[in-house]
Amino acid sequence: MRSEFDVKGKTQPDPFVFEDGGKFYMYVTATEGVEAYSADEPFGLWHYEGIVTDMPEGKSFWAPSVIRYEGRYYMYVSCESFGNYQNMHVLSSDSPLGPYRSPKRLYSEFSIDSHAVETECGLFLLLAMNKRCGKRHGTRVFVDRLLDPYTPEGKPKEIIPPTLDEEQFTPQCSEDYKWHTVEGPFWFYEGGYHYVMYSGGCYQDDTYHVGVAVAKTEEQDLTKINFKKACDGKKFAPVLIKNDQEGGTGHNSVIKHRGKYYAFYHGRDLSCAEGYDEDYVEQRTARYCELEVGDGKISAKR
Question: If pLDDT is split at 50, 70 and 90, which confidence band does 232 have?
Fold first, then answer.
């Protein structure tokens, strides 16, 4: 189901939905700064709030996430700044709509797609970084401890590697070289299970999909948990992928609303151009669907 907005002609790649004080906020990828929307109900009309980051030296702000911690709001987002390509930054604000200021770069290497979370063991940052190893070079999901909202421990642990041909990033693949992409992590805990939803494939075409990795444990230190893909690393079993109405589905966040789980993700209408094109035009818009969550499994009701 497509989300509805009070502005026309805008896109909402990588939607991160966040509830605070009974109100809902959506933060999305944009060029000049993170763009935000607000709504009284997550399935109603979203109001465009404009750019909420104050970082003039940055551009191409990708996949923001927000966490409220000790009464303050922290945004984690990757961007280009001072000649550095897509490094993770953190900014803070006293309001969910910003402006988010005082940026600090957290990693000096390619680092994207944050999800900052708090468990009883402290703060943790899930993110995607690159690694070349074996036959499946590519982007993969890591988790790092946060000593405080501005300070990662600097010991990111890989938790979701690429294991499937369906996770190849097609524009960077040839017969002799295959690049893979596993990115867009979102963590939550339910019924004794840790779930990390993630995206694989290429966001520019219809290989893009959402999968899930799971761990059944009471352990709350995310750096000590071993996650296993729902497909057990052997069989392709996406939670979300192209259907008869939309393609390029991926990069989701999750909310629990009135006792039910919902995924907010982006996709393209099938009336839009399909397939990779060097002259890629942004067409990803926010959508949502209900999730069935239980016993270490997630399925989408679309």
Answer: low
Spatial distance between the Cα atoms of 6 and 1, rounded to a whole number of angstroms:
16
Say what the pTM is. 0.96
- Apex CA 297: angle with CA 296 and CA 301, to 5°? 150
For 36, other C-beta atoms within 10 Å of its C-beta total 27
Q: Do residues 197 and 212 touch, judged by C-beta distance below 8 A?
A: yes
3-state helix, strand, coil in the chain (%, to 5): 5, 55, 40
Tell me how many domains the chain contains: 1
- Residue 172: phi and psi, rounded to 5, are -110, 25
Domain that holds residue 129: 4-301
Distance between CA 2 and CA 148 in Å, rounded?
A: 36
Q: Are 203 and 251 in contact (CB under 8 A)?
A: yes
User: Which residues, 6 or more positions from 123, have their beta carbon under 8 angstroms from its beta carbon?
Assistant: 67, 69, 116, 117, 145, 146, 147, 148, 149
Task: Name beta bridge partners: 50.
Answer: 36
Tokens of 87: 């490094």
For residues 15 and 65, give the distance between their C-alpha atoms in angstroms, rounded to a whole number: 9
Q: What pLDDT digit, counting tens, does each position of 60-114 carry?
A: 999 999 999 999 999 999 999 988 999 999 999 999 999 999 999 999 999 999 9
Whether 226 shows a pLDDT value over 70: the answer reads yes
Pair 298, 289: CB distance under 8 Å: no
- The domain that holds 59 is classified in CATH as 2.115.10.20
- Is residue 15 a contact partner of residue 265, using CB atoms and an 8 Å limit? yes
Which residue do the tokens 């959506």 mark? Answer: 26
